[in-house]
């Protein structure tokens, strides 16, 4: 990773206000953030802090109402039209009537890749998420963790440099989660993608990220941005080192500071 | 769990119900047809015992309620024993009704799907069409059927098409309702996913909405084919049609041929059962090909 890497996401004083029947709700206010190429950025905070909303603004699934945001120097809409990112949802969201390989081929079909190219890319991404040999299975024949890996493979199948992940392992048990976190880091290392990762687990955020964005609710805002001092190479037992615990402590303090207990 | 036995799990329950129905039926035959036997005896000035009444109630020419064996004999006589080309063959009449049913069902299905696609994709159509679709089914079909036939006849359209249109009128409804629900069934997540791929509306339709709606479509098709048959029979009633199961029902009731009415009813029921199970079979096959959990 170079320090002069190109910015992938640049947000300046970004705000989003939802108009609801109970009046306006400030989902995001005054968000300033730079994400560089190759970064692994985690967004952490209690529910309602706007972490998912921010990801959805990047993905052009929500429109910001104030400030500015650029993805690869483009508006979110143009970035989406240029297919700049792959999105992984909290649920695997696989199509039940398609086999795993057909699910991974879905974006490729839509984007008009040739069938030879599709086949080759499906095989490569299946291998990348350790699902080789499961291509012909239907989603219900796979465990929850394998389904989520298939959905990551689907987001990797086309050439988007940015991977947006919205609590992808939130519904899985801790053992599976640890395993997938480790694999995700390896995958990030191999593919050199930029990853935005929403989570509400402090260990997960610290273990994975090069940059941790701590957020707090009412109104949704960024309270702290922590550049992780941890090395890029991270075995699972790095979580017992003092450096790791120190970062985790700072995240916890940031969460505590942003949370107004009077409410 | 024990291995499911075809006899114990499937055949026996059905046979039990049939046996109960047959018992009730035979009792009803005696009860309903006995007054006629007694009247005849009174007119002839003879006294009949119960032992003499019972056999006679099972073999009347125009009973109030025919006995099952009479209906079976009539069915045999009008299907197997008659050439299909004969105007008295029930197979011939069933074919007349079936062709109107299938034509109406086909048109109803196409119409229903097209309307549902429009309703799902166009807000104006959703707001304006749906109330009319529902209102259309509150009009009794018996009231509207003669008018359709008369109006079409006056502009020179007669025969198969008017009857088929009544089937269409009935069968498009479950298709519209089922398909609107089916086409809207995909999860928001799956729709968002299509959005992130910048998929066109056509791609979203064929890759997501249509496959998601197929199970709903088949459920609707089962209802639609059954009421298409009802529509075709109803279409034959008010017009004095000379052929078709409806015509058999009508002429049977004109001439007090209860056995003929019941035979036509049984034929209609059998036809409906066959049609519904063909669609059921197609349903299972399609689900299997779509990788559904067995």
Automatic annotation (TrEMBL), chain A:
Keyword vocabulary terms for this entry: ATP-binding, Nucleotide-binding, Transport
SMART domains: AAA
UniProt cross-references to CDD domains, sorted A to Z: ABC_NrtD_SsuB_transporters
GO MF terms held by the record: ATP binding
Protein's name according to its UniProt entry: ABC transporter ATP-binding protein
Matches recorded under Pfam families: ABC_tran
Family recorded in the similarity comment: Belongs to the ABC transporter superfamily.
Keyword Magnesium among UniProt keywords: no
TrEMBL record, chain B:
Positions of the ABC transmembrane type-1 domain: 94-283
Main location: membrane
Keyword hit for Transport: yes
Subcellular location: Cell membrane
Pfam families tied to this protein: BPD_transp_1
Transmembrane segments: 12-32, 92-117, 129-152, 213-234, 259-282
Tagged with keyword Cell division: no
Domain of life: Bacteria
Family: Belongs to the binding-protein-dependent transport system permease family.
Protein name (Swiss-Prot/TrEMBL): ABC transporter permease
Species of the source: Rhizobium lemnae
């Amino acid at each position: 990773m170079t320090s002069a890497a190109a910015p992938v996401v640049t947000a300046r004083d970004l705000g989003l206000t939802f108009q609801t029947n109970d009046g306006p709700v400030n989902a995001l206010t005054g968000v300033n953030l730079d994400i560089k190429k190759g970064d692994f950025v985690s967004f952490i905070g209690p529910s309602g802090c706007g972490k998912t909303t921010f990801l959805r603004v990047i993905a052009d699934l929500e429109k910001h109402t104030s400030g500015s945001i650029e993805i690869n120097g483009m508006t979110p809409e143009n970035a989406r039209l240029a297919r700049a990112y792959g999105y992984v949802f909290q649920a695997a969201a696989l199509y039940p009537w398609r086999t795993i390989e057909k699910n991974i081929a879905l974006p490729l079909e839509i984007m008009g890749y040739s069938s030879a190219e599709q086949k080759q890319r499906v095989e490569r991404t299946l291998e990348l998420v350790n699902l080789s040999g499961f291509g012909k299975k239907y989603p219900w024949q796979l465990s929850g963790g394998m389904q989520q890996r298939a959905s990551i493979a689907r987001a990797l199948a086309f050439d988007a440099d940015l991977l947006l992940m919205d609590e992808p392992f939130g519904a899985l048990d801790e053992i599976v989660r640890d395993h997938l976190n480790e694999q995700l880091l390896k995958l990030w290392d191999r593919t050199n993608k930029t990853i935005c990762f929403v989570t509400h687990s402090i260990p997960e955020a610290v273990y994975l990220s090069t940059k941790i964005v701590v957020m707090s609710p009412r109104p949704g805002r960024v309270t702290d941005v922590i550049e992780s001092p941890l090395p890029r190479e991270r075995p699972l037992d790095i979580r017992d080192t003092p450096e790791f615990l120190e970062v985790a402590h700072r995240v916890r303090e940031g969460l505590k500071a942003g949370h107004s207990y009077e409410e | 769990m024990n291995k499911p036995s075809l006899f114990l799990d499937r055949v026996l329950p059905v046979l039990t119900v049939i046996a109960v129905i047959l018992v009730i039926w035979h009792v009803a035959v005696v009860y309903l047809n006995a007054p006629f036997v007694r009247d005849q005896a009174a007119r002839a000035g003879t006294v009949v015992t119960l032992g003499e009444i019972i056999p006679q109630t099972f073999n009347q020419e125009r009973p109030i309620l025919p006995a099952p064996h009479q209906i079976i004999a009539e069915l045999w006589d009008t299907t197997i024993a008659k050439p299909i080309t004969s105007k008295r063959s029930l197979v011939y009449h069933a074919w007349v009704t079936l062709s109107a049913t299938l034509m109406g069902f086909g048109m109803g299905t196409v119409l229903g799907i097209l309307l549902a696609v429009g309703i799902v994709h166009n807000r104006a159509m959703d707001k304006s069409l749906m109330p009319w679709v529902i209102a259309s089914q509150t009009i009794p079909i018996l009231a509207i059927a003669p008018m359709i036939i008369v109006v079409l006849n006056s502009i020179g359209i007669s025969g198969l098409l008017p009857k088929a249109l009544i089937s269409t009128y009935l069968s498009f409804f479950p298709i519209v309702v089922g398909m609107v629900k089916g086409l809207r069934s995909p999860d928001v997540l799956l729709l968002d996913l299509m959005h992130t791929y910048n998929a066109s509306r056509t791609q979203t339709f064929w890759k997501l909405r249509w496959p998601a709606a197929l199970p709903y479509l088949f459920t609707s098709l089962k209802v639609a084919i059954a009421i298409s048959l009802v529509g075709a029979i109803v279409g034959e009633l008010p017009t004095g049609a000379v052929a078709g199961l409806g015509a058999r029902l009508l002429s049977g009731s004109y001439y007090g041929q209860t056995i003929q009415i019941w035979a036509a009813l049984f034929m209609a029921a059998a036809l409906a059962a066959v049609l519904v199970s063909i669609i059921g079979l197609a349903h299972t096959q399609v689900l299997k090909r779509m990788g559904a959990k067995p």
